[in-house]
């Protein structure tokens, strides 16, 4: 699968890396000013893909074109690439401004001009007061901004970000994410960012590519991917109940992997192999079999209960597995605990059904 | 002074030892001999002879520059016999520790110029040692060999700047044997001991510095009886033959 | 009646109470410490303090000291120049025969120095396997020169530097070098501006070790370079030879060496060499 986009892509890559026990094969196209997020579980190959783009990992096959120029065999130092690493990797023996000026100086810019350039970038990031400090004296969020400034100082055409939020605590993440979004929006080249946090992908990216087991399993805008997940991983990530089955009319018979024999009723007619998904908040729980509108009703057993934000997520097993989000009040009223039997109901209109 | 003058007192001492109970039990006893480096081959051979004649006895040698050995003895090293390459060094031990059954001069040695077999620098006399580009090795002056070297050079009026001052005469000889030095002033006996490894060049001034080798029993040593027997061996006709074969001159 | 019941309680319970000294460890430790410290204390006690001044200023002591300091420093410089690249090759590349090379590099560490001196003589001497060509073509022979002292010292001391720097290089986080590469640094620039500064404490520690070892070298020096005051007579040689002639002079020389060693160790304190 390759992403759609205008003809003059900044990045055009086909990355094939073969190693014992691991294989990566993915195609990427990123337009100028676009941000592509590589989303996937650990071991999916996202970091390998990023490192291959940077030139730190050799390709077994494929190509990397930046602005039409073939850099497939070029070593990292000759690619027009800037990279921000997960642990930032700011040189501990250099000051903040020396870190940012490092790239330009390596590329031949005289020391004074490089320092000027570095100070300007730091000012943009709001860190000019820390120019003489050592990286160790900065907070996580500040280090991330310095790392970004350092990568941008070499005026790259391709910006690579490896899990940019991973090293930050939850509280800092929110503000840093917003700032990063603004900086990325102002960047004219292509950005590829790797993350396992769907929120990063949602907020920062224009397009999302889901990698699992070294291959792309889904690609699209963040909203598309969230609304119509194609794998269990993505579904869990965005918090939906996802099933595969065979549709005939408005009835979907679920496949063995999703819930043998169970039948889902959906709102619109559809034929063939389909995905069916509904969010946990669409599930209503009853003590007794309800009468009335929900066409999808099943007797299930409570398997687990845990707080989820200001709601409670109840995990149910039985003819199929369902996650239901209910209020704390409802929890108390139903007196739910593991082992209790309840009825779960979902309106047909709440079920999203799309071709597999 | 010949070692034979010691004959009478030696016999008495030996007789006394023979009467002492337990002297026939010689298993596991060690005789320690400190001797000048130039006595290495002579004493080494006599040592084997001694061990044959005294079953159960081991002779242990320490061969080094006489002044190093003297210093060790004065500082309390344990030895039964001391044989030095000159009387001055022996006097230090006499003063510092004490010596009995001696000291007596038992051999004499004169210097010779040692050169590699092909004599690359064409050295024929002491004067040649001072020529440009000749790599000469001398014994350090505190060693008897070195003192003797200084005497003969002064007598000949030759000023030599060596490339190295060696701390014992065997080390100086080795430099020549390896071809690292063009010439060295060593003892006649050392040249002979090297066999074909070096060539000896005589010079007239050698008579100016004759080293008198002295030997004696060190006071406080663990085996005075064995020490006396060792000296007897050195003084015997057999010992004298070994010394003269090696190039020593008998006093 | 015991004055205090506490020891009795300890005996009765049979357990180790807080404050009981582990004599099984302390005794050998004290013995070890004594073993190391007493000889040095003995030097201080037997020093001819009254005549120290005059002896210290004598030409012989000054020559030996300057020669020792100069050759040790030169040997360390050579070791840095040759040893750091060697350490880098051993730490960073996987060239065939690397294990053999590393084993060879450590041989001078276990070889008795005098054996090293013999080896140097047989190879680089005037009649040596290689030295003879040098002599034939240029008339220059290495033994008996100050350069020979440096060569002997490099032979015994460089392995310390190589092992130390190799260890430091292995400990460097390679990701910093990757980061530098993505910023446009060539391999040489990475080495110069990232790797080397990050291993600087390890290199310094190795250099100090190398310098100290070179300063104290005796066996290889006397064998290969010979003994001549001002030219090849380093401090250790001077001490050895003086002991035969004038023990007081030997003690003075020993004290000077001891003072220099302590000074070096104090100057290059832990924070410079990066020890935690």
From TrEMBL, chain B:
SUPFAM superfamilies linked? Periplasmic binding protein-like II
A biological process from GO: molybdate ion transport
CDD domains from the UniProt entry: PBP2_ModA_like_1 (cd13538)
Q: Which GO terms describe its molecular function?
A: metal ion binding; molybdate ion binding
| Binding residues for molybdate | 38, 66, 169, 187
* Entry keywords, A to Z: Metal-binding, Molybdenum, Signal
Q: Where is the signal peptide?
A: 1-18
Q: Does the keyword Signal apply?
A: yes
Q: InterPro entries per the record?
A: ModA (IPR005950), ModA/WtpA (IPR050682)
Q: Which domain of life is it from?
A: Bacteria
Which family does the record claim for this protein? Belongs to the bacterial solute-binding protein ModA family.
Q: Under which name does UniProt file this protein?
A: Molybdate-binding protein
Organism encoding this protein: Thermobifida cellulosilytica TB100
TrEMBL record, chain C:
Q: Which InterPro entries match?
A: ABC_perm_TupB-like, MetI-like, MetI-like_sf, ModB_ABC, NifC_ABC_porter
User: What Pfam families does this protein map onto?
Assistant: BPD_transp_1
Task: Locate the transmembrane regions by residue number.
Answer: 21-45, 65-91, 103-124, 144-165, 194-214, 249-268
In terms of Gene3D superfamilies, this protein maps to: MetI-like (1.10.3720.10)
Query: Transmembrane helix: is it a keyword of this entry?
Result: yes
Q: Where in the cell is it found?
A: Cell membrane
What domain of life does the UniProt record list for this protein's source?
A: Bacteria
Principal place of residence: membrane
Molecular-function annotations in GO: molybdate ion transmembrane transporter activity
Question: What is its membrane topology?
Answer: Multi-pass membrane protein
Cite the ABC transmembrane type-1 domain residue spans from the record.
65-268
- Which UniProt key words apply to this protein? Cell membrane, Membrane, Molybdenum, Transmembrane, Transmembrane helix, Transport
GO-annotated cellular components: plasma membrane
Protein family (similarity comment): Belongs to the binding-protein-dependent transport system permease family. CysTW subfamily.
As for what it does, the entry says: Part of the binding-protein-dependent transport system for molybdenum; probably responsible for the translocation of the substrate across the membrane.
Protein name stated in the entry: Molybdenum transport system permease
Biological source species: Thermobifida cellulosilytica TB100
